[in-house]
Amino acid sequence: MSAKTLTSIGPANRCARPEQSHPLTWRLRDDAQPVWLDEYQQKNGYAAARQALAEMAPEDIVQRVKESGLKGRGGAGFPTGVKWGLMPTDESLNIRYLLCNADEMEPNTWKDRLLMEQLPHLLIEGMLISARALKAYRGYIFLRGEYVDAADILNRAIAEAKAAGLLGQNILGSDFSFELFVHTGAGRYICGEETALINSLEGRRANPRAKPPFPAAVGVWGKPTCVNNVETLCNVPAIIGNGVDWYKSLARPGSEDHGSKLMGFSGKVKQPGLWELPFGISARELFEDYAGGMRDGYRLKCWQPGGAGTGFLLPEHLDAAMYAGGIAKVGTRMGTGLALAVDDSVGMVALLRNLEEFFARESCGWCTPCRDGLPWSVKLLRALERGEGQAGDLETLEQLCNFLGPGKTFCAHAPGAVEPLASALKYFRGEFEAGLARQSAPTGSDQLAPA
């Protein structure tokens, strides 16, 4: 798996050096092998870390990241510098943690895997600079347990960095010390939520925590903690090394998000893949110029812009700009930025039943709407798929989408689970109606019981 870097970041940067136009991917090898320490340093690796430790105070690093407009790349899109600014400034709180959320379990998403398996030192350098900004003395990479190769590669890279004095005590002759560890998860999607991740890291059941208090105040083992996504942290070295104005120039004019983003397309497209592209590129350009459009014999029916928890969009929505506000204008979220093309051979009822089975299985069971509502949706979708749906089933599914929506559950798991369902009911209602038994009538309490 490799990322193509043949993109036009913007008119001002068409002839730019790759390190200036593709800060995340320009160091990738053609053979897709990991870039180890010697090669990484030959490609200007750790230069930003040296600059940050020698020339910048922690608050200066925070301010630069804040001014850059870097936002979280895990799907939520919260401003990174603002999040860092929530960490306490009280010097007496000398035990702080930086956690890297590498629990990449969103279906149809594999961008962080690319970075960890091929550019492990980019993540380590990003965490080192970030830890300096946050005054964190220890960091953990909370890694999806199935990413066995990534775990081996990261552990080797950490050992290389430590042997070179880039991790451990008094890094690069400074007064800053930082230890970094890989922690593999046990395979729960809910660990992508930062407080569930913290509970799991502590050895507890992976349930989300009530907020406030937020992790910046009371995080892992009760200490101030910051949780950032892999791709987010990998942006930090280039921002420190090249500055705010350069970073903002990467995005297309009109984009409210800055920088570049790993984006992709999968499904029955001619060239499924992953590319580093500027925020603001149109989904049509991503779909047609990079993914090559649909394979011969297939027609695009609908698409998801960024993972299984984003709503379905129609072919006419391909002109939307790929940034948070651009995708919001057509009714859903950008999510992880890795899109899925659904072809015309796929039935939407079966597709949604498969998705909701995943989300129902991955619910932590902490709150009633999610614990009972998602299995209920699965039961109704199974009946519709068999052609045994009852009168009122579609209305019940719509009610569930409302009851499990934003602000009505303990965390964002259920709202993400029902977003694709709500959009499918909106755009493909006829397929759901086709699953209703013609003689159907309400059946009382049996209809209300979850699976």
Number of domains: 3
Report the sheet-strand fraction: 5-15%
Q: What is the makeup of the main sheet?
A: 4 strands, parallel
Helix content: 40-55%
Q: What is the strand and helix layout of this fold?
A:
Blueprint: H1 18-21, H2 37-42, H3 47-55, H4 58-68, H5 80-85, E1 97-102, H6 111-118, H7 120-134, E2 138-143, H8 148-163, E3 179-184, H9 194-201, E4 225-229, H10 230-242, H11 244-249, E5 260-267, E6 273-278, H12 283-290, E7 300-304, H13 324-328, E8 338-343, H14 348-362, H15 368-385, H16 393-403, H17 413-427, H18 429-433, H19 445-448
Parallel strand pairs: 1-2, 1-4, 2-3, 5-8
Antiparallel strand pairs: 5-6, 7-8
Helix pairs in contact: 3-7, 3-10, 4-7, 6-7, 6-8, 7-10, 14-15, 14-17, 15-16, 16-17
Keywords: 4Fe-4S, Flavoprotein, FMN, Iron, Iron-sulfur, Metal-binding, NAD, Oxidoreductase, Quinone, Translocase
Region (Disordered): 1-21
EC number: 7.1.1.-
Provide tags for this entry.
451 residues, alpha/beta, Rossmann fold, Ubiquitin-like (UB roll), de novo design (two linked rop proteins), 3 domains, four-stranded parallel β-sheet, four-stranded mixed β-sheet, 19 helices, 11% strand, globular, disordered C terminus
Describe this structure in words.
With 451 residues, the chain is an alpha/beta fold. The protein has 19 helices and eight strands. The strands form two sheets. Strands 3-2-1-4 form a four-stranded parallel beta sheet, with helices on both faces. A four-stranded mixed beta sheet has the order 6-5-8-7, covered by helices on one side. Helix 14 runs antiparallel to helix 17 and helix 16 packs antiparallel against helix 17. The longest helix is centred in the C-terminal third of the chain and has 18 residues. The N terminus and C terminus are likely disordered. It catalyses: a quinone + NADH + 5 H(+)(in) = a quinol + NAD(+) + 4 H(+)(out). This is NADH-quinone oxidoreductase subunit F.
